[in-house]
Specification:
single chain, 71% helix
């Protein structure tokens, strides 16, 4: 596994988590079938979001912000959880889906 050294610290950590989850899932050869690869990438990306922004911790952060009349933006979440700004969008979406059930 090779992680691009030009990535920033947060992006490197996410890339490492992403690749480790692929290894855990043990699905070699998915790159040969585009539809399976797309599904696998989506599943892995969701798992990275859950592991880097655990739903219970994310929900607590959101509650604290809202109780303080502060906005909840991807940038705020990224700073709190030390991730890139695109991962919080996915994690917040997953959290909202969880709340709907």
């Amino acid at each position: 596994m090779v992680i691009d050294p030009r990535l920033g610290r947060r992006a490197r950590h996410e890339a490492l988590a992403h690749e480790l989850i692929h290894l855990e899932r043990g699905l070699p050869g998915v790159h040969e079938v585009p539809l399976i690869e797309e599904r696998e990438e989506h599943r892995v990306r969701r798992e990275v979001a859950v592991r880097c922004l655990p739903p219970e911790m994310l929900a607590g952060f959101v509650r604290r912000r809202l109780c303080s009349d502060l906005p909840v933006t991807p940038r705020d979440v990224a700073g709190e959880f030390d991730v890139t700004e695109d991962l919080p969008e996915l994690a917040l979406g997953l959290l909202a889906m969880e709340d709907d059930t």
